[in-house]
């Protein structure tokens, strides 16, 4: 992909962040006719979007998240046509393994709501769940929830597809362009200064993932996002080779597993409690005994599976573990500020629909019949000042 090496002097919109969210926003804005400059401080996808595999699903407990996930699945399925490219989409389904009767009751309500919104999800017995994933321990669970349309894809391929699609529609994609300062000016414009040059614009869109709070501070917008390390381990090739599995999650512990790219291997992960806030992305093998302890309860046959290491990335967490999407209140001077960040582990799977929604916000058509994307008003960052924290139960 040919990337710009210098920052153009002017743009309708400047997108800060070259991960899956920033490239989706840039593509959808460029497709809508805006002259877009995307600025990435490192290389494209070098932050959280650099992980090899990302889950895609519409199974959430909150309707707004369900709609974002469902619309994104439609766009992932159409990705070869628009913007173009193979993202390795594998729709093996998502299987939530539910430890207790209370969990089953919670998902019973969620599944009813999801089905009303067009999601083909269902509750399963433990026996039905084990037919989909024979590694599951029958005594550990009271039931399961499953949606066959869910699955996983490759974030790096999605980033490349959106970035190339944006560039074909006239956008400039500039790497090695960390934003140093944003200088507000007259006539609703700001100048975004980077080592590769400065660009004057009427709109800045913050899509910087775990770094969004610092970028927001440059435009006087508080985006309460904190980075937390998450680790993933890979098994060696197993014998016999695992069958094709759904993306499986133990709802009680967040332990999860699914097939990896290499034949016969599995990917294992979980959100480790007590991980400190910080930008550390070093893989620490010392966490593996803890992970094996989770596996021993959920999937006993995998408790002693040989591990070949893994990788670590950053979750971008907000106080209520839900996304920030919206436009900041108008400032006395300078450009408009929009944002899409803080997805708390859901950014990859929601990025296609969020790109559409941010384009609607930029064009002023959000909430009107002309809108192409879904309503994201519930994700406005102002909810924290108004004490309107969101509640999403299906968090990994």
Provide structural commentary.
- This protein has 396 residues and is α/β, with parallel strands linked by helices.
- It has nine helices and 20 strands.
- The protein has helices at residues 20-31, 63-77, 80-84, 101-116, 126-132, 155-168, 212-218, 288-298, 347-363, and strands at 10-11, 13-16, 36-39, 54-56, 94-98, 122-124, 143-147, 151-153, 172-174, 181-184, 190-194, 197-201, 203-206, 226-235, 247-250, 256-259, 266-270, 307-317, 324-327, 336-341.
- An eight-stranded mixed β-sheet has the order 6-7-5-15-16-17-14-18, sandwiched between helices. A six-stranded mixed β-sheet has the order 9-3-2-13-20-19, sandwiched between helices. Strands 1-12-11-10 form a four-stranded mixed β-sheet, with no helix packed on it.
- The two termini are 33 Å apart.
- 50% of the residues are buried.
- The mean pLDDT is 95.
* Number of separate strands: 20
Count of helix runs: 9
As residue ranges, the low-confidence spans are none
**H/E element sequence:** EEHEEHHEHEHEEHEEEEEHEEEEHEEEH
Average pLDDT metric: 95
- The CA-CA distance between the termini, in Å, is 33 Å
CA-atom Rg in angstroms: 21 Å
Helix content: 25-40%
Major beta-sheet overview:
8 strands, mixed
Structural class: alpha/beta
Shape: globular
Q: Give the amount of beta strand, in percent.
A: 15-25%
Strand order of the largest sheet: 6-7-5-15-16-17-14-18
């Amino acid at each position: 992909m040919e990337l710009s090496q210098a920052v153009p002097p002017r743009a309708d919109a400047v997108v800060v962040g070259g991960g899956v969210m920033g490239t989706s926003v840039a593509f959808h804005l460029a497709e809508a006719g805006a002259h877009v400059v995307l600025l990435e401080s490192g290389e494209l996808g070098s932050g959280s979007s650099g992980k090899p595999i990302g889950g895609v699903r519409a199974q959430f407990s909150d309707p707004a998240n369900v709609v974002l996930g469902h619309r994104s699945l439609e766009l992932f399925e159409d990705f070869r046509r628009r913007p173009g490219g193979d993202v390795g989409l594998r729709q093996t389904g998502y299987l939530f393994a539910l430890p207790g009767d209370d969990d089953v009751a919670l998902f019973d309500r969620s599944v009813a709501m999801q089905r009303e919104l067009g999601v083909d999800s269902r509750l399963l017995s433990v026996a039905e769940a084990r037919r989909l994933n024979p590694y599951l321990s029958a005594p550990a669970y009271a039931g399961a929830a499953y949606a066959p349309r869910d699955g996983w894809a490759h974030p790096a391929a999605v980033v490349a597809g959106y970035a190339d699609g944006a560039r074909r529609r006239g956008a400039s994609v500039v790497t090695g362009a960390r934003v140093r300062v944003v200088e507000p000016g007259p006539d609703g414009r700001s100048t975004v200064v980077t080592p590769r040059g400065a660009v004057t614009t009427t709109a800045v869109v913050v899509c910087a993932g775990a770094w969004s709070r610092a970028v927001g501070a440059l435009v006087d917008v508080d985006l309460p996002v904190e980075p937390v390390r998450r680790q993933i381990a890979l098994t060696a090739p197993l014998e016999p080779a695992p069958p094709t599995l759904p993306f499986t999650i133990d709802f009680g512990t967040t332990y999860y597993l699914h097939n990896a790219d290499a034949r016969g291997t599995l990917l294992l992960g979980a959100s480790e409690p007590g991980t400190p806030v910080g930008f550390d992305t070093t893989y620490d093998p010392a966490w593996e005994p803890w992970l094996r302890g989770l596996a021993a309860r959920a999937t006993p046959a995998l408790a002693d599976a040989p591990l070949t290491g893994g990788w670590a990335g950053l979750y971008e967490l907000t106080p209520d573990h839900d996304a920030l999407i919206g436009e900041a209140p108008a400032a006395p001077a300078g450009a408009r500020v929009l944002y899409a960040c803080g997805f708390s582990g859901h950014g990859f799977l929601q990025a296609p629909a969020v790109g559409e929604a941010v384009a609607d916000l930029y064009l002023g058509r959000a909430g009107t019949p002309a809108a192409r994307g879904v309503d994201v008003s519930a994700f406005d960052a102002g909810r924290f000042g108004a004490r309107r924290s969101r509640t999403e139960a299906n968090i990994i």
